[in-house]
Amino acid sequence: MAEIGRYRADLALLSPVGIDAQRGASNYDHREAEVARAMADNAERVVILTDYSKIGMESRVAFCPPERIDVLITNHKASTEAAFAALNAKLKRIVLV
Question: How many domains does the chain have?
């Protein structure tokens, strides 16, 4: 963890267990969440990579609030999820692939 804090990154690419409009990106493993949080904190931009099944899901440990997420990259099926509209309203940019 201390090593991550020593460096600044242009971009952090992170993949959560879940992402929702209230808590942002989250993970079930607190150690993985700590690493992801440190990476997000030390990056200029944060990109979250996830598929439709994680949209609206909330795991135990939040590591990146929605306000800190610059881009969410997900698949087209994500737009059919009930929680997608709330994420779309809250996040800066969503890319459907």
Answer: 1
- Whether the CB-CB separation of 44 and 11 falls below 8 Å is answered with yes
Q: Which residue in 67, 82, 71, 63 sits closest to 25, CA to CA?
A: 63
Distances (CA, A) of 18 to 4, 5, 8, 52, 92: 23, 24, 25, 10, 18
Ramachandran angles phi, psi of 5, nearest 5°? -65, -20
pTM assigned to the model: 0.94
Residue 85 DSSP symbol: H
* Domain, as residue range, for 82: 2-96
Series of mean pLDDT values for 10-residue runs along the chain (97 residues): 88 98 97 97 97 97 98 98 97 97
